[in-house]
Amino acid sequence: MSDVTDAVARLVEHGPAVPTMVLASVAALIATARFHTRWSRRHGQAPPADDTGARPPTAERPAGSVETGAASAVAAAAVDAGPEGGESALWRMRTTVRDAPGSLAVLCAALAEQRIDILSLQTHPLADGTVDEFLLRAPGELSGTELAGVVTAAGGTHTWTERADAHDLVDAPTRVLALAARTALDAAELPLALRQLLGRCTIKSLPAGSGADVSGAVPPEGTLEDTVLRLRAPEGGVISVERAHLPFTPAEFARARALVELDARLGPRIPHGLDVLTLPEGSDITVRRADTRDVPAAKAMHERCSARTLGMRYHGPVGDADRYLNHLLSPRFGRTLAVQTASGRIVGLGHLLWDGDETEVALLVEDAWQRRGIGGELLGRLVAMATETGCESVYALTQASNTGMVAAMRGLGLPLDYQIEEGTLVVTARLDPSARSATRLPHGERIGQE
Hints:
The protein is α+β, with helices and mostly antiparallel strands.
């Protein structure tokens, strides 16, 4: 992973054309892997049918590519067909074996006796043993408890099993290269890449100077404490990763640290793409990604907004925007889209915010530019981003009287859940992979009224 960090960083440092070079190189590697494996990685696994892990089952899928229905069907058919023509199932398994000659051979022989194929194996050396991580194809009738029993009888300890799917079949080097490339091209990808690298986990960014800042207790090389790892954030503060159901290994810690080091070496960056859209009255606006370098322009927009508009967005009186705009525009906490006029003035902001295991969407459009379809355009693009990163839902927190935000959420055409308490409304939209194409307008298309 350190080699990947150095290679990607050197490429990006060569100049503005490098993002294309990075994408082309990694695309070639991934295309080669797909030619051999015929399926791509999507972050996470399906809900386990029989799981010996110590965390509740979840259908969460972290960030990753969205696969077409046809490819999913091919992958599912490949999983169901066992080596002898019977039904089979894929399992991810971790177990600790003694660091002694023959220990792994005994375990492999025990798996073979149960007609269990070993599709891949990674080793994580420890001071007093080795954690072996397997991807297995087992007979369909074998349960997770039975699989763990076979391994325990063969000398494995602290065994953890989880149902896998065909997306786990991609080889580890290709997956790590793809994560490094995503991180190199977009600073907002770091928390998502860490989650895909480490599986189901909770990632928290603790800004420097905040009440939760523990950077003073974290050395530059980071710390690893069983199920919690902490790393110095590139911009200051700490990135904390927790995975209660499975301890981190030193190898996983080194991989996570390498991704964070890559991010730190490349500095602030966001994709440079933008779309020029035409409003119904003929005015052109530009939609682009924004970050903390846009704080002065965003603050100026806030100063032009009415107290009512700001109150709708922030659910009460608003003080100095400096204390929250740096957080909202930081790629560490999500992604921001800005709408700007031909003169370069920002007139609208849309935020996609990582909130633990949930994802929040928020909008602010300057008074003079409201009711022109800008809010719906921003929201549709934010939802498309959330879908592409594997989110299962997004929620908007607003006032019950904010009919514009409610109308924008309804305009998505997605299943919605409503919760209201003391005038505060939470609208949750459940996402679907097919929403990706439905929520993003083509370049230059005219947008309608809200």
